[in-house]
Amino acid sequence: MNVCEAVAKRISKLLKEKGMTQYRLEQKSGILHGSMACIMNGRNKTVTLSTVYMLARGFDMTVNEFLDDEIFLADNVDFE
Fold it and tell me: What is the CATH number of the domain that holds 66?
C-alpha cells in the first residue's frame, strides 16, 4: 500500500477508536470536506506533513502518536 492509503486506514481506525465522525474530524482539524474525501477515497497521490499535522491535531494527538502504528512500518508501506 502507498502512504496515502496508509493514512486513510489510520484515519478510519482512529475514527472508530475515538467514536468520532469524519465530519467532526474535518471541523477539528481544519481540513476541508473535499480534501478529506480525496484522502479517504484514495484520489490523493501524496499526503503532506502539514496534512498529517492537521489530522493529528484533529484527533487531539501529536504527529508522533498519529504515526505510531504498525501500518506505517517500512515493510507495510511503499514509499515510492
Answer: 1.10.260.40
